[in-house]
Amino acid sequence: MAKTTKAKATTKAKTTTKTTTKTKPTAKAASKAKTASKTASKAAGKPKPTSKAKPAATPPATPQSPFAKIAPGELQTLFDYVRYAVSRFAEANLAFAHGTTDPVSEAAFLVCDTLYLHPERFEEFAAARVTAAEGEQILEVIHRRVTTRLPAAYLVNKAYMLGLPFYVDERVIVPRSFIGELLGSHFDGEDGSLIGDPEAVESVLDLCTGSGCLAVLASQRFPNARIDAVDASPDALEVAAENIDIYELEDRVTLYQGDLFKPLGDTRYDLIISNPPYVDAQGMADLPEECRAEPELAFFGGEDGLDIVRRILAEAKQHLTPTGGLLCEIGRGRDNIDAAFPDLPLLWLDTEESEAEVFWIAAADLT
């Protein structure tokens, strides 16, 4: 029977401070400009003019912004702009699934990024006043988020995992894996750790690496390991290479383009981590507009979402050392996994924000 274990408390970085209240405004801030029309009254008994005055030409209507015009001084502090953004996001019924899970945290992320602040510092600066030029930049990114419905990470080319910034654009899925947190909570060598000593790990494979963020996080958790990272998309690997360069890991992380294990030969690893495509057909049909801006290749896992996962489970043993193991994220596909592999002793791991979306299996338990 599959087991579930709760992750130990971690210091998982969020895109906003934990003190930010996750609430949705219920009222829409859509003020309408009032116009008043005046009609000229005729004085009784006065003679009519012999000629009519030519009416003034009416200028063509100027297209109005979907946002009400903000008068100078109406929005002053970071908190004011976050509140305003939350109202606009709720009004537009945006979806939040890209590192932020609600309109408040996404608004704080965009406001802070525009002001070159780490989002964890929002509370520290919440009451600080914003300059007029900064305010215009903030309103512009809010406007783009609402009108384009692109993920916020694409608008600012940045996403955070465990407090670390990563470069992202439309070539890769926006990183939001739970594996990063689990590397800290279950691979630390402490009681309950799934490995004995992080410093003893010599090799790690990141399958379906995307932006390369998990490879970077693995390099920090396992300081003595060489790390290989594979993706089928050449475009995604260009983004991964940029992040590898940002963190100066060229000597430790090697990128491979190809289909899962094929470019690796018979190389074996102490640990394989993977956040593969796992969305099933119904899930693809239900994706919000924001997610449809991301590469479909990074999402679709076949009719039941397990096409790639089945292959990983079938081939992983040939690429693991005898004491190694596989850590794999499958989203909400546990029921399908349990039905397809009833005899596999999968250990399901939870995080602060997920339940049974990632499993662990030791090499010795793979068939």
From TrEMBL:
<dbReference type="GO" id="GO:0003676">
    <property type="term" value="F:nucleic acid binding"/>
</dbReference>
<feature type="compositionally biased region" description="Low complexity">
    <location>
        <begin position="12"/>
        <end position="56"/>
    </location>
</feature>
<protein>
    <submittedName>
        <fullName>Modification methylase, HemK family</fullName>
    </submittedName>
</protein>
<dbReference type="InterPro" id="IPR007848">
    <property type="entry name" value="Small_mtfrase_dom"/>
</dbReference>
<dbReference type="Pfam" id="PF05175">
    <property type="entry name" value="MTS"/>
</dbReference>
<keyword id="KW-0808">Transferase</keyword>
<keyword id="KW-0489">Methyltransferase</keyword>
<dbReference type="GO" id="GO:0005829">
    <property type="term" value="C:cytosol"/>
</dbReference>
<feature type="region of interest" description="Disordered">
    <location>
        <begin position="1"/>
        <end position="68"/>
    </location>
</feature>
<dbReference type="InterPro" id="IPR004556">
    <property type="entry name" value="HemK-like"/>
</dbReference>
<dbReference type="InterPro" id="IPR002052">
    <property type="entry name" value="DNA_methylase_N6_adenine_CS"/>
</dbReference>
<feature type="compositionally biased region" description="Basic residues">
    <location>
        <begin position="1"/>
        <end position="11"/>
    </location>
</feature>
<feature type="domain" description="Methyltransferase small">
    <location>
        <begin position="202"/>
        <end position="282"/>
    </location>
</feature>
<dbReference type="GO" id="GO:0032259">
    <property type="term" value="P:methylation"/>
</dbReference>
<dbReference type="GO" id="GO:0036009">
    <property type="term" value="F:protein-glutamine N-methyltransferase activity"/>
</dbReference>
<dbReference type="InterPro" id="IPR029063">
    <property type="entry name" value="SAM-dependent_MTases_sf"/>
</dbReference>
<keyword id="KW-0949">S-adenosyl-L-methionine</keyword>
<dbReference type="InterPro" id="IPR017127">
    <property type="entry name" value="Ribosome_uL3_MTase"/>
</dbReference>
